[in-house]
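Milestone M4 deliverable, item 7.
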Amino acid sequence: MSEFYPVMGRTILNEADINRALTRIAHEILEGNRGAENLVLVGIQRKGAPLAQRLAEKIARTDSSFNPQLCLGQLDITKYRDDLNSKPEKTPLPTVLPESGIDGKNLVLVDDVLYSGRTIRAGLDALKDYGRPACVRLAVLVDRGHRELPIRADHVGKNLPTSSEEVVRVYLEEIDGCTDRVEILHPNSGE
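Output delivered:
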């Protein structure tokens, strides 16, 4: 795929923008939940997990009753995907449930980019194997549109209208070892 796309794209969000977006989302989560009671965050592996960690830390700084060590998890959706036959086999990553569990909890599912909705559907399918939350809300760093399923995010860092030919890439220090940023790659323009 890299042979068709340039190494660098146009930066849509820089490190400071991402930090501000996550701070806003953390406050929205607390406001929507009316505090931190009964709240758990679960990040979809790969990039949703570090974003959930960052959100948990921001929530804990705002509400000291929220304990990230008890209320944070990560979810691998590999075996729940509907495109396993068309994509190379991915190595599953660990699923780690919050220590407080997810049954009866107000769960916020966290991911980096919302596109077709299929990843989130796989996440919802995976969650039902681990318990039954009281409710599930969705927080994403970028919503780029083009939904194929009736899924919408409750908390969005940036709405980014795109064409289906464009590629949105999120780079996070924890995963990519580089400065946080969100780029959009235009395959036809050479940008």
